[in-house]
Every structure is written in C-alpha cells, then in structure tokens.
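Priority: medium. Attachment 1 of 2:
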C-alpha cells in the first residue's frame, strides 16, 4: 500500500525531473557559448546557470528531508517514484558520491561523444579532485558503517517492510530504528552535497557547467531507460 508521503514525493519528483530536463537544455546552450561569446559574458552565464542547478538540487533535498521525517521507510523500501533500474543503482536513498568522480574521469576522456569535456583539467585540479575523492570515500564508509550498526540493509526490502508492520502495531523500538534511518539518510545526503560543492569549487565555471550537464544527462538517461524497460515488462 502506498503511503501519502510516497504519493506526494512521487508527484514532486516527476516535476523535479521535468525541470531538470529544462535546465539541462540551458546547460547545453551555455556550454556552447564558450566558443561564441566573450570570456566575461560567458563567465557570468556559467555562474548563473550553475547557481540555478545547485538551487534545484537544494530544493530536492529540502523537500525530501521534510517528507522523510514523516515516513522515512518510503525512502528505503524500493521508492515507488523510481524505476527498477534506478532502484538497482540506489545507495542509501540516492546516488553514490563516488559516481561523481567516475563522471569526471569520463569527461576527462572526452565525455563519450556528448560534446562536453574536462580535457583541459590542470594537474593541480586533478590533484585536488583526488584529495576530495579520498575524503568523500572515507565519509561513504562512515555512512555504510552506520547502516551496518543499525543492521538494516538498503537492498533488503523485507527488513524495511517488517519495520513498517511493527510501526503499525505501535512498537516504540521502531521509532528508534526510524530515527536511525533518518540520520543515516541525512548523512548520505550531506556527503552527496559536499561532493557536488567540492567539485564545483575545484572546477572553473566553464568546467562546472559541463560537469553538471553530464551529470544531468546521465540521470535523465537512466530514468528514461528504466521507464522503457518497465513498459516492456508490462507488455510481456
């Protein structure tokens, strides 16, 4: 049975992804300006669109945290707003921070024919990114240790459903588990946000635009593939 929180977040997420597609179009347009506009004008445009993207991400986490406080289990039990493909790549209710560094590496190799690139990354930037990668990996490990302490597996739907059933029975111990899950979710989200901010602080505004565009492309592509796969299964 779908909870009201799950239904509400599903509506929000669909709209949020639609807005992300619109912002991606702007990112691509601004990215192309690097060969057509003056450096001063381009720098202003890069910073402006980066601010729009970061605000969009902050809006997501603000809404997520507000609803998760009322029903944290909906965010751990194979979220209904995600496709099976998206759920298969889920790490503590969201994307794994180390994925962002894999995207950077892909962009350094040319961005897989997307027209986006971080080929111009300097040695100093690369060194800073490696340092950030190490720090964020340590924080990922800390989040995973906390999950282990709670003895709840993110991929174990049965465990979460058992907690949900116990909650309906008024078990006080469940409140402790829920509080722990909410804490771990916020820890993971903070690592995601710190990773994003850390990379944007290292990259130039122009590079930041290409990185954010590539990240959005991947997220949108996975979602579309997931929806296509789900439709095919329903037709079988």
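Attachment 2 of 2:
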């Amino acid at each position: 049975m779908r909870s009201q929180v799950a239904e509400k977040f599903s509506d929000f997420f669909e709209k949020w992804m639609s807005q992300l597609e619109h912002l991606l179009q702007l990112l691509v347009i601004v990215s192309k300006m690097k060969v057509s506009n003056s450096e001063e004008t381009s720098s202003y445009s890069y910073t402006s669109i980066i601010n729009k993207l970061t605000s969009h991400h902050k809006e997501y986490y603000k809404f997520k945290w507000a609803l998760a406080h009322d029903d944290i289990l909906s965010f751990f039990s194979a979220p209904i707003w995600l496709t099976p493909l998206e759920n298969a790549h889920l790490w503590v209710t969201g994307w794994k921070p180390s994925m962002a560094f894999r995207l950077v590496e892909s962009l350094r190799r040319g961005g897989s024919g997307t027209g986006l690139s971080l080929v111009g990354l300097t040695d100093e930037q690369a060194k800073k990114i490696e340092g950030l990668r190490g720090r964020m990996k340590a924080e990922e490990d800390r989040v995973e240790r906390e999950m282990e302490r709670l003895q709840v597996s993110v991929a174990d739907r049965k465990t979460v459903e058992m907690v949900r059933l116990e909650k309906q029975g008024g078990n006080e111990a469940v409140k402790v588990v829920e509080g722990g899950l909410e804490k771990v979710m916020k820890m993971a989200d903070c690592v995601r946000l710190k990773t994003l901010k850390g990379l944007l602080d290292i990259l130039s505004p122009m590079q930041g635009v290409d990185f954010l565009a590539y990240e959005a492309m991947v997220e949108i592509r996975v979602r579309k593939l997931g929806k296509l796969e789900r439709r095919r299964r329903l037709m079988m």
